[in-house]
Amino acid sequence: MSTRILSLYILFMLLVTEGRGQDILTPEDAIRVTLENNYDIRLAENSYEADQLGVSAGFAGMLPRVNLVLNDNNSIQTLDQTRTDGTERSLSNAKNNNLNYGVALDWTVFDGLKMFARHEQLQELEKLGETELKQAILTNVSNVLITYYDVVQQQQQLAVLDSTLVISRQRVELAQNRFTIGKASKLELLNAKVDLNTDQTLKLKQQESYNNTKIRLNELLARDGKTDFQVVDEMTVDKELFLPELEVLAKERNPELLTRIISKQIAELELKQVKANRYPVITASTGYNFSRTESSLGFVTNSNSHGWNYGFSVSMNVFDGFNQNRSEKIAKIAIDNNELMIAQQKQALLSQLGTAFQTYQTNLGLIVLEHRNETIAKENLDITMEKYKIGTITTMEFRTAQLNHINAQLRHSEAVLQAKLSEITLKAISGSLSF
Q1: Residue 175 lies in a domain
Q2: Domain that holds residue 142
Q3: Beta pairing, strands 88-110 & 281-295
Q4: pTM for this structure?
Q5: Are residues 346 and 206 in the same domain?
Q6: Where are the alpha helices (DSSP H) in 276-394?
Q7: Could you say which protein family the record assigns here (predicted)?
Q8: Model pLDDT for residues 278-298, shown as the tens digit of each residue
Q9: Residue 419 in contact with residue 360, Cβ under 8 Å?
Q10: Per-residue pLDDT reduced to its tens digit, 312-363
Q11: Does one domain contain both 241 and 271?
C-alpha cells in the first residue's frame, strides 16, 4: 500500500470516528426538542392550562355558594336589673353565651344574564390562550429553524474553506518544487505561503462563527450550550409557494390576527356584562341553623333552637351618577378600537407577505444564477490549475481563479440560505409552518 493511499485511509477513518462522536441533529429533531424544552413555549403552555381551568360555571357565577357558619359569642358582666314589679337584682361575673352554627346557601338566580356572558368570555379567554400558545410555538420554531439553517450554511462554508486549503497547500507544494528546480522565483513561493495563511485565518474565523451559532441554537433548544452536534449537509427549499394561497391561509391561521379577532369578541362580551347592570339582581338564600343561648340572669337562662330559614332579595341600580352610561360608552369604544386593530393587522399582514414573497422569488432566482456561476468558476479553476502546474500562467492568475471559485461557492450557499429563510418567514406569517 502506497504512502498516499495509507494517508487517505487514515484520514477517512478519523472522519468516520469524529462523525460517530457527534449526533446528527435534523430539523425535525430540532423542532421536537424545541416543543419539549423551550422556556417560552412551556410558559405559554402553563398559561393556556390556567385559561382552560378558568372555564367553569363556578367562575362565571352561575352556581350557588354554600358556607358552613359558626358564631360563638361569650361575655362576663356585672348586671343590675330593676324589674317591672319594682324588685331589684344584681349579679357579679354573670356569664352569657350565644352559639349559632349551620349551613347557609346563597344563589344568584338572575343578574341580567351577566353570568352567561361571563361564561362565554371565559371560553374566549381559553381560545386566546390557545392562540397565544400557537404564537409562541410558531415564533420559537421559526427562530430555531432560522438558526439551524444558519448552522448548515456555516458548515457548508467550512467545507468550502477546507477544500480551498487543500488547493492552497497543493499550490505551495508546486511552488516549492518549482523553486527547488529553479523554474520559479522565491517571490512566487512566498506569495503562495501568504495566501495559504490567509485561507487558514478565514477558516479560523469561520470556525468561531460556526461554534457560536451552535451555542445559540443550543440556547434556543433549552439545553447545555456545550452539547455538540452536527447538522444535515444540505438545505431543501420549497419552490412551490403561491402568494394568493398564503394570503388566504394568513387570514385564517395567523396567530396575531386571530388574537385581535378574539380580543374583539371578548370586548363585545364585556359590553354585555356592563349592560346587564341595568337589570335587577335576584338572590335566593336558605340554610339550616342551630342556636343555643345561655344567660346567668334573666327570665330565660337557657334556650335551644334549630330549623330552616329561607328567603330572597332583589336589588336594582336606579341611579349611580350616570356611571352606567359612561361604562357602556367606554365598552363600545373598546370594541371600535379592536375593529381598527383587526383592519390594521390585516393590512400589515398582507404587506409583510407581499414583501417576503418578493424576497423569496428574488432568492430563488439567485440560487439558479449562483449555481451557474459556481459551475463556471469550478471549470475555470480546474483549467487554471492545470495551466499552473505546467507553468503557463502566473501566481496572480491562479489566485484570482481560486478566489472566484471560493466566492461563487459562498454566494451560492448564501443564496440557498436566504431562500430557505424566506420560505420559513412566509410559512410563519401565514401560519402554515409545520411543527
Answers
A1: yes
A2: 22-55+111-280+322-429
A3: antiparallel
A4: 0.82
A5: yes
A6: 323-389
A7: Belongs to the outer membrane factor (OMF) (TC 1.B.17) family.
A8: 999 999 999 999 988 877 665
A9: yes
A10: 999 999 999 999 999 999 999 999 999 999 999 999 999 999 999 999 999 9
A11: yes
